[in-house]
Specification:
With 367 residues, the protein is of the alpha+beta class. It is built from 13 helices and eight strands. The strands form three sheets. Strands 1-2-3 form a three-stranded antiparallel beta sheet. β6 and β7 form a beta hairpin. α4 runs antiparallel to α5, α4 packs antiparallel against α13 and α6 packs antiparallel against α11. The radius of gyration is 21 Å and the shape is globular.
Length: 367
């Protein structure tokens, strides 16, 4: 019988691979068993929200996934609107799409930095974090915050974009698109990167369907699943964009899917900048904070985050609080159902690489 050694990979901040711990049994450098441990970051969101009024709870939802908080805000706001029977303006819908696509784009840049770092590529993390900062500059101008925005609000959005914002958005889109081919040259087409990513962390398409994998994980298996196309919300049914897919199902295929999605987000942002109504209301009139009561009803809303389908079940009971909130994100199945068996037989050096390629957000698990 071969002796094994047990080590813990994490937790150490920052980023995906640092907010959780993997308990690994090793035979030399080969992993023979892996167990996921979470709970090292924010947790208990659902119960915290159920004990607060709707407006108080709104400030919590963005913490459910720090790298990309805006889909949480949009799901929560849209769920409240459906429970109250509110419809938001066309202008507010376009602004929300703009925020969501900027959020997706900066999340992919953050992933690119992490994926580069996971294989020891020092240049890509610095480039990608720098590009992301330009997007965060726009968020700061629009919302007052760089990471947590609390901007997509029940009934619409908090405030109008400042004067000249769409022009600055167009300029940034042009700059980012012009520089994307540089990442192909230094990263995606790099022979060393391909050797590290190809054939690693392979996901079977039948397994992906059976277990409900989402986002780049399922699209890298050749399955074009995307909530924006499958169950359109806001104005996504009025916009032109493609759903990128690959067929290899490995870490490199997931990287290529995200690379293609970055271009599609830029494409959507261009359309939003051109088609957004020049004026109109951005917010419905809501009752005062303590008088905003949710009816005895329930709803289920979902959106497409950078990590995949992200959904909220929300139920009211006639009071100013939610009776039940349940969050369904892709990280739970990606971090347990998928990651644990995927690491078996892998090398120790590939642990962070595989984890990053799955787009896991640990607070979304301990919700």
């Amino acid at each position: 019988m071969t002796d094994t050694i047990k080590i813990f990979h994490g937790p150490q901040h920052p980023g995906v691979t640092g907010n959780m711990s993997m308990e690994l049994d090793l035979d030399g450098e080969t992993i023979v068993a892996a167990k996921t441990h979470v709970g090292y970051l924010h947790r208990g969101f659902e119960k915290l929200i159920e004990r607060r009024t709707v407006i108080q709870a709104f400030t919590i939802v963005c913490r459910i996934c720090v790298p990309e908080p805006d889909p949480n805000e949009e799901n929560f706001a849209r769920g409240v609107e459906e429970l109250l029977g509110l419809g938001i303006s066309e202008r507010a819908k376009y602004i929300r799409v703009m925020v969501l696509e900027l959020a997706r784009l900066q999340a992919h840049y953050l992933w690119l930095a992490g994926q580069g770092g996971s294989i020891g590529h020092g240049v890509v993390p610095q480039w990608a974090v720098g590009e992301r900062d330009y997007i965060l500059d726009l968020f700061e101008e629009l919302t007052g915050g760089r990471v947590y925005h609390m901007y997509i609000y029940p009934g619409g959005v908090k405030r109008d974009p400042p004067e000249g914002f769409l022009d600055r958005l167009r300029d940034l889109v042009d700059d980012l698109e012009r520089r994307l081919p540089e990442y192909d040259r230094i990263f995606f087409d790099n022979t060393a990167v391909k050797k590290r990513l190809q054939g690693v962390g392979v996901v079977d398409p039948d397994e992906a369907l059976r277990h409900g994998y989402a986002g780049p994980v399922i699209r890298a298996c050749g399955l074009p699943r995307d909530v924006r196309r499958d169950a359109p919300y806001l104005v996504y049914d009025q916009l032109e964009f493609d759903i990128p897919t690959e067929t290899a199902g490995d870490a490199y295929a997931r990287a290529l899917v995200r690379r293609a999605e970055m271009y599609q987000s830029l494409r959507i942002l261009r359309q939003v900048a051109e088609r957004m109504p020049a004026d109109g209301p951005i917010q419905c009139k809501l009752p005062p904070h303590r008088k905003l009561k949710l009816p005895k009803a329930e709803t289920y809303v979902q959106s497409e985050s950078a990590r995949g389908a992200f959904a909220y079940f929300m139920a009211g009971d006639g009071s100013e609080r939610l009776r039940r909130l349940q969050v369904r994100g892709p990280s739970l199945v990606h971090a347990f159902t998928l990651l644990e068996p995927l690491l078996q037989g892998a090398q120790l050096a590939d642990v962070a690489l595989i984890m990053t390629s799955l787009g896991i957000c640990p607070p979304e698990i301990e919700r």
